What does this fold into?
Amino acid sequence: MAPRSITPLPAPDLAAAHDPGFLVAGQRAAEALAGTPPDAIGRPLPSPGSESREIRIGTASWTDPTMTRGGVFYPPGVSTADARLRYYAEQFSVVEVDSSYYALPDRGIAQLWADRTPPTFSFHVKAHALMTGQPTEVARLPEGLVMHLPVEIATKTKIYGKDLDPELLERVWEHFLDALTPLREVGKLGGVLLQYPRWFVPSRANTDMLSATARYLDGLPATVEFRNHLWFEGDSSTRRTLDLLRDLGLTHVMVDGPQGLESSVPAVPAVTTHTLAMIRLHGRRSATWEAPSVPTVERYRYLYSAAELERWMPLIESAATEATRTIVFFNNCYGNYGATNARELVSMLSRTRSA
It folds into this structure.
């Protein structure tokens, strides 16, 4: 897949076209479901021309408060953690775990995830903030880790991975990976998502950090999403970035998001590992993307049009000819927007498959 970028369609008025409200999004979701073959709902789709390769489509959360609000995505009566995950797993074949970024995952919770989902379901778990150089609240760390923090760090409100000595950082990784054991044991851990902050730029130190991360993962499938345009600043920079990921056995995440900002990266179509390809669609709400004090969910308050989704179809199908598994996540998890777009994409791809 030759490196290039997708040119976005000119965006119509945001409020009218891309933030129409839950009712309109729900109507679109119902139309998509009506046009989707039953055997394509909640199951992986076979890749074009190959039954041994698959495409999975889902959302980057199943528990956002705007999504769990009554009548938005979940039907009446589906209001417990157990029921929500079981319902979600009937609709889609994969989900991204976002909570693990804010708090290290718990082995008991991972066991519940494994128990509540079908055998073919898959989880992709976002790395904890400390694992990608971002800040975390000390109060949210497990007691077993806090007790090993030096006093001058343990008394802080927030800390960064760089504040920890190598032994403590290794403990963070060990806790994270151990907690995911129940998913690994039943084949439901699709991989780990490493989302780096905008200040993570191309440098020797950050290259070393990526190398160390690959060693920690020890062959576990992992995807990398950068949030600084310098990683893809021109053809030579793009080639260096992709070659680095290939050498480390890490999957490049192809992204769709707002452009023209420091944290913007182009949609570079490239598969860097043959086992896994990933695409994450964040919406294009540029006004709130880097705005301070904006709730996270507001940054992704964007419903893609059918035309925008169709422009991604050739890239998805191309990636699926190179990788055993191709994952598409909708991170526009405001209410039912992400789920609606996921349903629409499943419908589009299933129709292409049956044509």
The CA atoms of residues 122 and 188 lie 5 Å apart. The longest helix spans residues 337-354.
